[in-house]
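PROTEIN DATA CARD
Card holder: histidine kinase
Chain length: 756
Origin: Salinivibrio costicola subsp. alcaliphilus
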Amino acid sequence: MKAGKAILRHSLSVSLMTKLALCWVILIALFASLLLFADYQSHKSQVQRVLQDVGSRDVRTMTDHLWRVETQAFEQQIEQLIAQPEIDYIHVYDADSTQIERGVEPTQQSIQMSWPLIAKKEGNEYVLGQLDVASNYTALRAYLGESAKWAFLGWLGVSGLGVIASMWIVQRYLTAPLSALHQQVNQWDNGLPNQISVPPECRGWWGFEARYNAMVTQFRQTLSRVENEKLDAEKASHKKSEFLANMSHEIRTPMNGIIGMASLLKSTRLNDEQQEFVEMLETSSMSLLDVINDILDFSKIEAGKLELEPLELNVFELGKDLENLFTLRAKEKHLQFGCEIDPEISPLLIGDTPRLRQVMINLVGNAIKFTEQGDVAVSITKVLDEGNACVLRFQVKDTGPGVPIEAQNRIFGKFEQGDASAATAGGTGLGLAISQQIVNLMGGRITLESEVDVGSLFSFSARFECADVPLATPVEAYLFAGAPMLLVDDSRLNMRITTAQLSNLGCQVTCCMHPDDALPLIKERLDSQSPFKVVLLDKIMPKMDGFSLAEQIVTELGERSPAIIMLTAAPDVIDRPRIERSGIEGYLGRPYQFNDLKANLVRILQQRQPTLGIVRSTGKGTSLAGLHVLVVEDSKVNQRVTEAMLTQLGINVRSADNGEQALALWSSQPFDAIFMDCQMPVMDGYEAAALIRRKASRTDRIPIIALTANATAEDKEACLAAGMDDYIAKPVRQHELATMLRKHTFTTDTQLLTKE
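Structure generated from the sequence above:
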């Protein structure tokens, strides 16, 4: 720091001195030049006067000498004239010849004057000749050279004295005070500037000192006020976050009961009117949940805490989700709805799947909400392939009323609606604002092209990394290598998704869109070298549903029948009897996880190829029946809902009202998994999970899944930090519970077989 200050002072002093020296040198040089120029003009005028004096004073005398032929006197007069330093050339001549010539011939820059030599006698004029006189400034140049030499010496002396005097003045009254002030200005206290004190000999700087110190005082006061306001804002933001978390918990807790009970009611025997009421109840509850989620997301955006989480992303699964969500809604409004996905897109990417799904659901939902006739079309295309990454373009086009130009920018604002019709359609006015923020985090921007009474096109682009396709274990690779499989599905999008997944595993896939053609294809391959090992079929298809087709295959082929897996977007608990009756060995609800499909195929192929001698499953199906699960929940309604959902899956359930009871039950009997609420009286879920982890051995680690109404990333991190294995935000669905159990527990008993 000291070296820096010395350098600064040195550079400041040198800069000022250099500038002053240059000013002195230039000014004195200009002054000297002006003096020399004035002297030059004076001597030039003198030369002209001397020449003019020749004409007025000597011409008559020279004429008399010539008239009288006084040659000696004439030449003496000429010599006297040429001896003058101002005259360099004299020439006297007549029409016949030159009479006399002295000096150096004049140059082009010389001054020349001429006079006729005329004698006047007795009233007559006799021209005797011509007199030319010239000056080449020889004397003037010699004089100026000498003057310039002394002027230069004087210039050097005066400049030197001026520079020395200026340097002393600058050093004493400018550089030294500035250096002292610079040292004081750079001395800060805890990030705040200190007041300065000007040296006594620098009285001229006292005004600066007063103004600077006043500015520092004001700055300190302002900064202190800002710090206080910042602390108040942080406290307010913290309180707001606590309020939102509490609000989320308080609302989600009863909503879990409402949505859960509605889901359970739907699976019971209801008449048509009751079924309609339950569906309306569930729909309204989900709409309320969407509003709550929008408010929470808006709060995260305001706090700058909305972040993306890199997950595995399958755009084909996303497209199928959109079809499942909006096809029925579009049919109710007599709209055409379709989703087209570029088949060249990699089946597995890295992106925030829930957030991308949220954006697309918002855009498609708005399009269907405001479109009364025509169609809504979704397209996902690849616009750039970078090898290990790609850029996708998402578009949602509708034939709705369009958005006026003056409202197109406004609709992306918070709490904004496009026009009066949009406001009457309901909603929080946060959907597009949140979607825009999510897309911005993805590195894109939502754009709108719209024309009133024609329609709208919402689009955005985003860049995604390509994910590594999950590799099978050596045993699985042996099972899947070239395994012939038949896929029966009337949906091209479903077929594209499943085909990509099976192909990544190494299977040979044959596709069939018409269920009538499935059985002939199977029979045709029965006696070949590669009969179908597995048939994957959809549940709902035209002319013949999946159950009827499965029953037909099993009935006609008997023991030669390939294994059958059903994939359906409409899973229902009442399907269980038909699954057992039709001989279906696997049942997955869409959207399913890739690992769930792989696990079903591994189980089925291992059962049908026991000679592999590695691992054989002794269980049947993907049933969770027989698991023992502990549910820790202080709300009786939510406790009852979770118990009912798990019981329908064939699971043995025990319940506890708080963490203390959960510890007692866990100590007294074994459980396969624990669903743990976080906020409970007596002992909360965080403390209970931590105690279980401390008391349990490494080999006896029981899966603990947080089941809580808190829905922020901080809550998830808190759950994981307490020792929990996973996280489900309320309200929960039955398939979420089942997915977590399949993920964290063994759903079948397995044994290791060794060859003798």
